[in-house]
Amino acid sequence: MSVELNNEFGHIDISNDVIAQIAGGAAIECYGIVGMASKHQIRDGLTDILRKENFAKGVLIRQAGEDLHIDMYIVVSYGTKISEIAYQVQSKVKYTVNKTLGMSVKSVNIFVQGVRVANV
Amino acid sequence: MKSLDGIKFAEMVQMGAHHLYQNAGYVDSLNVFPVPDGDTGTNMNLSMTSGADETELHAGAHIGKTAQALSKGLLMGARGNSGVILSQLFRGFGKAIEKNSEIDAKGLANAFQAGVDTAYKAVMKPVEGTILTVAREAAAKGVEVAETEDNLIAVMEAFIEEARASLNRTPDLLPVLKEVGVVDSGGQGLLFVYEGFLASMKGEPLPAKNESSLDDLINAEHHRVQDFMDTSAIEFGYCTEIMVRFEAEKEPFDEEQFRQELNPMGDSLLVISDDEVAKVHIHSETPGAVLEAGQKYGSLIKIKVDNMREQHSAIVNEAPKTPAKVKQQKVPFAIVTIAMGEGVANLLRSIGASYVIEGGQTMNPSTEDIVKAVQEIGAERVLILPNNKNIIMAAEQAAELLEIEAAVVPTKTIPQGMAAILAFNPEESVANNKNYMTEGFAHVKTGQVTFAVRDTSIDGVEIRKDDYMALAEGKIILSTTEMMDAAKQVLDNLMDEDSEIVTIIFGEDATAEQAEQLQSFIEENYEDAEVELVDGKQSLYPFILSVE
């Protein structure tokens, strides 16, 4: 499971885990996001927030030709405007992946898996 | 001012929103983080406007309820990262005072602090050097001042002063800001809101509108395009900036129309104008057309055109099309000299030659070579030391051709050149230096040992091919099959009781041991003389000897 890039010198293979790390890392820097969640909360029994090493469970990478599609499962902070947070994550992830991997991201799909109430 | 009620607070919110609205364009121009899309000001303005509208609808004397209205309006209208954070700051602010009909200085400070706490709770990895930092540091200052100060205005002033200082520190915390040369856009937006609050409290007019400086806009624009480009992908290669001063007899200027006109010529177009001048920045493939377009309205008072492909390939470290020359530092007064052999060249450089042309007996540099070398170091004045009688002519011609002050010090040998360089005084004129340096090498005697290339007879000395010839001051004194013999003979010829310093420069056909043998020979026979050995690596001359 990896993404391939070809250039005149040969080819570059970037594993999905790497992309997941980069996308997840970009996402959790966004304001209003509390963490990454597992895609299969029930199956994985992870009702909790994913640790950095497990980002891949909450980030799905699909490649179609030259295009990259990313699905992200996130947990947001209560009392924020969720649609806006999701939009911020999309734009930040798209920008970061493009900047660090030089790949254009066709779509970033956000699945909000939970809301965290901060004890205000 | 000792207390604040809902009515007054609603006025403050209106003023804050208006001040932000006024400066939204400026905030946009600073936006490079988290994604450089230049919309921070727009987003914050939309969010704040939504908050202000809601506040106006529900404004009452009860400050708690008024603040709740602001909080709700902000939440509903939150746009962008900065907008969301703004909404969180005032959500916490509103929550802290929801039961209060009015607040005092401590109450205000604590409400700001509560807002910061709430805002920080909604983020996993707070990035410092952003709006969060500005809000946090300002709030902490406010709380500190409110301990002893009960005047709301004084607390607000201290609060804003800290916010401003914090904003100016953002580039130290967030590298991308420093790189682009801007402060954080969200933090700047927040400061505008706070400034509006204070102006309203004091009943003063708003501070002047910040004009987006073209420089900020250009910085952000360049940052945006540079990230993703490889050099070959640059479609519009010239970063073109012009400033046009309008003239009455030319066409009347209309910014929008001008923009339309320039639009097809490239991208990254920025136009700023007032009644007198227009400033333009555009990336274009036809900078000439841009200049002409500007000239229709007046005279061009500033023009700058940079080739971005060249710059970019330098930035991304691709192999540039031409081998990059190491840019020498500009020397006001240079010495250009000629040497053969790496060791000799290094020696000359070490004692003060700015540039050494590798030449020598069989590879004499041409006039053109000398001119090029001088031009390359970009000196204002130059002295040329040929160190070889066969190069003196070429050097003289080069001095004629050069458009800077130049003179030739007619050195015929390396030792003469060394002595001349040591007599150089950069404080003096070219003419004076030429005199000093010529005097400086006059007392230097040069000996050389070289090979004969054919049978011949010079100055009455019979010479056979492959013999070693000994030359003293350019005159042949003997020819022998023994190299060391030739060298010792030369030294004997040159040395007298006044000789103090002997320099032995041994070439690639002599060994260090042989040079040391010569050294011993001198020390035995001339005990007053000091000997210096130099590994000159020169070809053709196993030994070059200088005696002073």
What are the salient characteristics of this protein?
heterodimer; A: 120 residues; alpha+beta; four-stranded mixed beta sheet; two-stranded antiparallel ribbon; elongated; B: 548 residues; six-stranded mixed beta sheet; four-stranded antiparallel beta sheet; 21 helices
What report would you give on this structure?
Chain A is 34% helix and 38% strand. Chain A is an alpha+beta fold and 120 residues long. The longest helix of chain A is centred in the last third of the chain and has 20 residues, at 82-101. Chain A is elongated and about 50 Å long. The termini of chain A are far apart. Residues 318-329 of chain B have low confidence and may be disordered. Chain B has a six-stranded mixed beta sheet with strand order 15-14-11-18-16-17, with helices on both faces. In chain B, helix 2 (24-30) runs antiparallel to helix 10 (185-202) and helix 7 (131-146) runs antiparallel to helix 8. Chain B contains 21 helices and 18 strands. Chain B has 548 residues and is an alpha+beta fold. The interface between A and B is medium-sized, with 24 and 27 residues.
Give the helix tally of chain A.
4
* Succession of helices and strands of chain A: EEHEHHEEHE
**Which chains make the largest contact?**
A-B, 24 and 27 residues
Roughly what is the average pLDDT of chain B, rounded to an integer?
A: 84
Strand content of chain A: 35-45%
Q: Unreliable segments of chain A (pLDDT under 50, ≥5 consecutive)? A: none
The Cα radius of gyration of chain B reads 39 Å
Mean pLDDT of chain A: 81
Q: What structural category characterises the helix and strand content of chain B?
A: alpha+beta
Distance between the termini of chain A: 42 Å
Task: Determine Rg of chain A (CA atoms, Å).
Answer: 15 Å
Strand content of chain B: 15-25%
